[in-house]
């Protein structure tokens, strides 16, 4: 009995281990059952059926998005600093007309004496500095108010009021056209100067040019452009001085103008091309790095791209939407 006494704890341990093994077996049986049911569920659809279900869901989502009509700007939040690079002045952008899988970024440093455009395959590559391609434009640009729209770069040719359309696909200028009577070369720039006389931008409704003329007393003129030919489709004259505007951007056919490019700037004025009317607004935004030389809206991302004193930043926008119902005409 004395020699068997030390074996009692060992037997107790075996007894405990046996219980654990039994529990493990039960859990494995349960897990096997769950896996079997998942396998049976997945096996009910082949690849083509699953693909059709995904496409159907995407169409339903798109239909829901289409019921969101163009909205009115209510709030600007951020910014998020994406990268710190380049000089104090420049532009960076993505194509609002590109597919969701296409996230190429274009980067144009400085506001003058440059014609090198850098391309990155994605935001991640842009942050990492991994260039996919470089374009050497035939003409130098003026200002920082360029835009990429449906695969083409639109920019103001240096020391002129000529708008250039450059195709990234062909690497050539497709067309160029002068904006009649538009001031250029710091005649009617934004408050920060930098040959920002002609601002090209895009929104949900198409391609736009914002500039000023002597005929409109140096006040801002808005023109909608044909993206293919650069012909002016329609023009609106505002009563807001171009030289008193910090930056501007279009959302759903309404031009929003900031009152400064420095700290404390806010969206102060809005002009609707739909109603040919304006209103004064009070929408602040955080000018984190004190000097804004580019601020452009991207309709696909529903965000503002900014060049903030050598920092590439993103702002979120909040729009007030009207939901269309099937009963609406």
Automatic annotation (TrEMBL):
It is found in: Secreted. GO terms for biological process: signal transduction. GO terms for cellular component: extracellular space. Pfam families: OLF (PF02191). InterPro entries: Olfac-like_dom (IPR003112), Olfactomedin-like_domain (IPR050605). Disulfide bonds join 70-252. Residues 69-321 form the Olfactomedin-like domain. The keyword Metal-binding does not apply. Keywords: Coiled coil, Disulfide bond, Secreted. It comes from the Eukaryota. The keyword Hydrolase does not apply. Residues 21-67 form a coiled coil. This is Olfactomedin-like domain-containing protein. The lineage of its organism: Eukaryota, Metazoa, Chordata, Craniata, Vertebrata.
């Amino acid at each position: 009995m004395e020699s068997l006494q030390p074996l009692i704890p060992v037997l107790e341990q075996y007894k405990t281990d046996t219980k654990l093994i039994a529990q493990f077996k039960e859990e494995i049986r349960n897990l096997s059952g769950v896996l079997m049911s998942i396998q049976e569920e997945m096996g009910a659809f082949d690849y083509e059926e699953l693909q059709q279900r995904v496409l159907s869901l995407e169409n339903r989502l798109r239909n829901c998005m289409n019921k969101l009509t163009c909205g009115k700007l209510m709030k600007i939040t951020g910014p998020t600093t994406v990268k710190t690079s380049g000089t104090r002045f420049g532009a960076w952008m993505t194509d609002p007309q590109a597919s969701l899988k296409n996230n190429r970024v274009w980067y144009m440093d400085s506001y003058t004496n440059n014609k090198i455009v850098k391309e990155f395959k994605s935001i991640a590559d842009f942050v990492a500095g991994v260039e996919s391609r470089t374009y050497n434009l035939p003409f130098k640009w003026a200002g920082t108010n360029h835009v990429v729209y449906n695969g083409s770069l639109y920019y103001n040719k240096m020391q002129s009021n000529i708008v250039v359309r450059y195709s990234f696909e062909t690497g050539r200028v497709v067309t160029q056209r002068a904006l009649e009577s538009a001031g250029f070369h710091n005649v009617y720039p934004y408050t920060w100067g930098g040959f920002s006389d002609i601002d090209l931008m895009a929104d949900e409704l198409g391609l736009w040019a914002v500039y000023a003329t002597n005929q409109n007393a140096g006040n801002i003129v808005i023109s909608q452009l044909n993206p293919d030919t650069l012909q002016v489709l329609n023009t609106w004259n505002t009563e807001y001085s171009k030289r008193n505007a910090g930056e501007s951007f279009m959302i759903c056919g309404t031009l929003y103008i900031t009152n400064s490019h420095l700290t404390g700037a806010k969206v102060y004025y809005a002009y609707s091309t739909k109603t040919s009317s304006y209103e004064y607004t009070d929408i602040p935004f955080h000018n984190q790095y004190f000097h804004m030389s580019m601020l452009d809206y991207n309709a696909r991302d529903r965000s503002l791209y900014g060049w903030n004193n050598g920092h590439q930043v993103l702002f979120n926008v909040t729009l007030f939407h009207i939901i269309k119902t099937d009963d609406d005409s």
